[in-house]
């Protein structure tokens, strides 16, 4: 499962960013070309996060489409299918672009007790 390798890298990035702060959630944008399975990705993330500040964090996975450009009719559309054909003419002579990103969009941290926002310490 390639999801494990991706999630190990994400958890490493989160750990470097978080330091000792506890993580409550992370939002990850992954392109269609990675062909991730949502449930498998979530399980891989949970496994990679065990024993780290990201353990038990809620994962918000956003899958982004790729762009399908038809060489026959010139149609241009977005698709979540890596084996896309042109939805305009049904042709399979298409160029696929995008959909290959893997981005850690945001991380949510546990609120520290006794800390007043905007005040040091």
Automatic annotation (TrEMBL):
Positions that bind Ni(2+): 2
Keywords noted in UniProt: Metal-binding, Nickel, Zinc
Binding positions (Zn(2+)): 70, 73, 86, 89
Functional summary from the UniProt entry: Involved in the maturation of [NiFe] hydrogenases. Required for nickel insertion into the metal center of the hydrogenase.
InterPro entries reported in the protein's UniProt record: Hydgase_Ni_incorp_HypA/HybF_CS, HypA/HybF
GN (gene name): hypA
GO molecular function annotations of the record: nickel cation binding; zinc ion binding
The family this protein is said to belong to: Belongs to the HypA/HybF family.
Entry keyword Metal-binding: yes
Top-level division of the source organism's lineage: Bacteria
GO biological process, one term: protein maturation
Name by which UniProt lists this protein: Hydrogenase maturation factor HypA
């Amino acid at each position: 499962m390639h999801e494990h390798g991706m999630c190990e890298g994400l958890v490493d990035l989160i750990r470097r960013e978080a330091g000792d702060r506890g993580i409550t959630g992370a939002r990850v944008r992954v392109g269609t070309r990675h062909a991730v399975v949502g449930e498998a990705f979530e399980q891989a993330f949970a496994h990679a996060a065990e024993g780290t500040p990201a353990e038990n964090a809620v994962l918000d996975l956003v899958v982004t489409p790729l762009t399908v450009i038809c060489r026959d009719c010139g149609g241009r559309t977005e698709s979540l299918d890596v084996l896309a054909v042109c939805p305009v003419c049904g042709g399979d002579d298409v160029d696929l672009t995008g959909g290959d990103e893997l981005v850690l969009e945001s991380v949510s941290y546990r609120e520290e007790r006794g800390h007043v926002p905007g005040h040091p310490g």
